[in-house]
Write a structure and sequence with these properties.
291 residues; alpha/beta; D-Maltodextrin-Binding Protein, domain 2; 6-stranded mixed sheet; 5-stranded mixed sheet; 11 strands; 16% strand
């Protein structure tokens, strides 16, 4: 009898590394580690793997648009604060978040998780009116790639598309800031919030939220005869238990443990025009992994 194989793609991280060595019952787990860009491109563009580390913002946008090809488990392999994700020109006139109003600000993808979080911080923590910003979408350091899973334009926001990379537009003075997960290449830019580390520490102390960036997404068609969502969830728990993050509560998996962070992200996504209605947290995950 042929044993089915479940193909999983991840970024190589200390808390997921042990997955490749865990024995499974009734199926073979094939784990491939690669850069996040390779995982994202392979899973989205090329249709590879049954499950993969996936950008949570894009997943929310797909669910809000009615896509039912993917489901997910409340396992979050990557988190990051995003106070430092706003970049401005060294010699520009933007010195405070409020200066971004009436300016042109670049984003790599309106649905990028880092962007949703950073824009939420601007609106909720610094009182910036996002609808008073002229938004430009482009690749960060290169021309944007075609989107294999397009999602609707954000409700209530006009986003201009550009084939010129954001880093170039910033250097040319054609935009005033960039919101992105990574620092733009080249010289001449700085983080808007110079004290972002202190701001992140204070924010975490006040809210208890360590923002979720990535989730484990699974193709629904791959679940027949393969591991259940619960079994897959437990494999990730087992792998993390053998890592240095085993006792780090802020890296906990599970819906209840992360409800505050997920609710905040869903609130921000809806306020930023992602979806006609606000998704409920439970709608993100398969029913078998809900409490």
């Amino acid at each position: 009898m042929t044993v089915p194989t479940f193909h999983l793609a991840l970024v190589d991280r200390p808390h997921t590394r042990a997955l490749g060595a865990i024995e499974t019952d009734g199926y073979k787990l094939d784990v491939e580690f690669a850069s996040f860009e390779e995982v994202r491109r392979g899973f989205l563009d090329e249709g590879r793997w049954d499950a993969a580390e996936f950008p949570l913002g894009r997943y929310i946008a797909l669910k809000a648009a009615g896509d039912r090809n993917l489901t997910a488990i409340p396992v979050f392999p990557w988190r990051s604060f995003r106070h430092g994700a706003i970049y401005v020109r060294d010699d520009g006139s933007v010195s405070a978040p409020s200066d971004l109003e009436r300016r042109r600000v670049g984003v790599t993808d309106w649905h990028q998780t880092a962007g949703i979080v950073a824009r939420g911080l601007l609106a909720n923590e610094y009182g910036v009116r996002l609808d008073r910003i002229d938004w430009v979408a482009a690749g960060l350091d290169a021309a944007p790639r075609p989107d294999p899973l397009p999602v609707p334009e954000p409700r209530g926001f006009a986003v201009q598309r550009s084939d010129t990379p954001l880093a170039t537009l910033l250097q040319q003075g054609k935009i005033d800031a960039i919101i992105a997960a990574d620092r733009p290449r080249g010289s001449g830019s700085r983080q808007l919030l110079a004290d972002h580390s202190e701001a992140e520490t204070a924010w975490f102390s006040r809210t208890g939220i360590f923002p979720v960036m990535h989730v484990i997404a699974i193709r629904r068609k791959s679940l027949s005869g393969r591991p259940t969502l619960d079994a897959l969830h437990q494999l990730f728990e087992q792998a993390k238990a053998s890592s240095s993050l085993a006792q780090e509560a802020k890296w906990n998996y599970g819906l209840d443990e992360n409800r505050a962070a997920l609710d905040r992200l869903l609130d921000d996504a809806f306020a930023q025009g992602i979806g006609e209605t606000r998704l409920e947290t439970e709608e993100l995950f398969g029913p078998s992994v809900l409490p």
